[in-house]
Design goal:
The chain contains 14 helices and no strands. It is globular and about 85 Å long. It is 76% helix and 0% strand. It is mostly helical.
Length: 319
């Protein structure tokens, strides 16, 4: 197991380096320039070209691309995610201000999503080919096919039409400062993200449960007189969860890192909104650093999921 973890860590380093290299190239292939759009227009100098040249020098944009790339990679190696052109603050400081919002929304999305998807998958399998199964399968298919922003818009229109509550998109409350207002702000994006983000888990868990429920050891458990609930939860579910766990790990990573749409729709100043605003401004360093950080989270979650396999299934051993 130790050797496997070390190999995976080495592979993760390579993956993160590839992501960093790709994002460095990709953002510079975009049209537009931070200096031209943000800096030069604010400099009151007679010679515009001189203003642009001075701004590029101060930001380090006058260096060749290979030197900029070397500085970027060297910074990542020491944990430096870059400094914003616009605010002159480090990416870590910017993310520190926004991380609580993203964690609050992400946690709600995960809790709501899995509290819906897991029971739906289990019940649909246990009640196979009944009206309950058809209803839950239809719900899962609809959730997979519906964009997250569409569900968010529909729920928002319902809340506004019937004046159910006030959505505070200006105050930006936290759960530890104003739980009620925070709940009214996060509940719609949390439901929207939870339903669409975990819809795949519903369908996969159902198919895995159906396969496990047909195994001989499940029939033996029934023959021994064990209660159906015990057979389903203690025997069938644990084995059905092994392949589902991979999807759940990827789902959590995607939810935490993919809240750009929801955070912008509801003016939540989280990492997703920050990422989008930096890209629009062509503020490369914090955008690059945030993407690399998200990639690091994803590959780490995948490693943890693989390690958990051995706990769920003792037959699995990593050479």
């Amino acid at each position: 197991m130790t050797q496997y973890i070390l190999r995976r860590l080495l592979l993760n380093v390579v993956v993160i380096w590839l992501v960093a290299s790709l994002v460095f190239v990709a953002v510079r292939a975009l049209p537009g320039d931070f200096v031209l759009t943000q800096v030069a227009t604010n400099l009151e100098l007679a010679d515009n070209q001189a203003a642009i040249a001075e701004a590029r020098r101060l930001l380090g944009l006058d260096k060749p691309l290979w030197q900029q790339y070397a500085v970027f990679i060297a910074g990542l190696a020491t944990g430096d995610l870059g400094t914003s052109y616009a605010t002159r603050r480090s990416t870590w400081a910017e993310l520190g201000d926004r991380l609580p919002y993203t964690l609050e929304l992400g946690t709600m999305i995960v809790l709501i999503g899995f509290s819906i998807s897991l029971p739906v998958g289990i019940i649909s399998a246990v009640k196979q080919d009944t009206w309950i199964d058809y209803l839950l399968r239809g719900f899962a298919i609809l959730a997979v096919a519906t964009p997250v922003f569409f569900i968010a818009v529909i729920l928002t229109l319902i809340v506004l039409k019937y004046d159910l509550w006030t959505i505070d998109i200006i105050g930006r409350p936290h759960f530890w400062t104003d739980p009620k207002k925070a709940l009214t702000l996060y509940i719609i994006p949390a439901i929207s993200g939870g339903v669409t983000g975990t819809a795949g888990v519903m369908r996969l868990l159902r198919s895995q449960m159906l396969e496990v429920l047909r195994q001989d050891y499940i029939r033996t458990a029934h023959a021994k007189g064990l209660r159906r609930r015990s057979v389903v939860l203690r025997h069938a579910l644990k084995n059905a969860m092994i392949p589902v766990l991979t999807v759940m790990g990827l789902t959590v990573s995607a939810i935490v890192s993919g809240q750009i749409i929801l955070e912008n729709m509801f003016n939540i100043p989280g990492i997703g909104q920050f990422l989008f605003s930096r890209l629009l401004m062509r503020d490369f360093p914090p955008f690059q650093g945030t993407v690399v950080l998200i990639a690091t989270v994803i590959v780490t979650v995948n490693l943890i999921v693989d390690i958990l396999y051995a706990w769920l299934d003792p037959r699995i051993r990593y050479a």
